[in-house]
């Protein structure tokens, strides 16, 4: 027998011995762990055992008293079985893992034991340290964070109207570029003021952006109003189109960026769309929509239609602040003083919560 053959036999013997020692070590470790868990389960406080005895006695009484309670007790016993099955499954997985590692070490004499030894050393060095969970909160309650205001940034924010008057040309151009990059649907009135700027480039920015926005508005209103006013469309579709179109038109028309004639034309269209919504499904018409059409008609001095919508709002939403404020504005602008004071007295004696603007109006007319 040569020296290489002897060396090979010695390696096989050592490898087999390592595998046997590994299996014996896991066997002893499993028994020790099981006995420790059993002792931990047996060592319970007396109060806990008494509580369990009380619970068992209560369950026995419930079982003797009613059959429904016996069903519940049987269900509780069944609930204990999944936990036992889980423990058995975990133990089986561990045993399978031990035998798998033993097989790898047996068929790979040098590489197998070296690999598992190296991985065990790495685990003990870097991953076996206990995790500090003192700062971790396991709670289902939501935490609301309050961010402090950025005073340095907000100190430099001014209304666009003021910026147009006092800002130099370079800063005004940068301001306009920042405005047009965002949502300009609610800034059309401010952008329109930049048309009168002394800087021609700023005025050009404002004109191009305003023209594109108004053209989109004209196209959208024409397309959607045809669907709403068309008798060929189904009533359900007409109602949904009308709801969306009223809110869209009001967002632009309240900024007064059109000429007087065009503004009145679109308000008339809005009046017709609201009429379709009121006729087809008046219960879906909100108080905000009543207020929107009333104020837009009031701005173009169409007092008759404004009174019509105010009366409809009073019938459907009698105890709403918007209903009272629309009537006050209508009677004040149309010169009906008696009706104005009647509505104001009714508002004072109602249970409606009054905002600061309306409260200041009442104080002014009481003097």
Word description of this protein:
The protein is an all-alpha fold. The chain contains 16 helices and no strands. 16% of the residues are buried.
Name a few traits of the molecule.
single chain, 77% helix, 16 helices, mainly alpha, 367 residues
List strands and helices in order, with pairings.
Elements: H1 3-42, H2 46-65, H3 67-107, H4 111-127, H5 151-154, H6 160-166, H7 169-181, H8 188-193, H9 200-229, H10 235-253, H11 260-281, H12 287-299, H13 303-316, H14 321-333, H15 337-348, H16 356-366
Short summary:
By secondary structure, the protein is mainly α. 77% of the residues lie in helices and 0% in strands.
Portion in beta strands: under 5%
Helix tally?
Answer: 16
Task: Give the overall shape.
Answer: elongated
Query: How many angstroms separate the termini?
Result: 125 Å
SSE order, one letter for each helix or strand: HHHHHHHHHHHHHHHH
* Low-confidence residue ranges: 43-52, 66-80
Most strands sheet = none
Given the helix and strand composition, which structural class is it? mainly alpha
Estimate the helix proportion, in percent. Answer: over 70%
Rg estimate, integer Å? 41 Å
Overall mean pLDDT: 76
Strand tally is 0
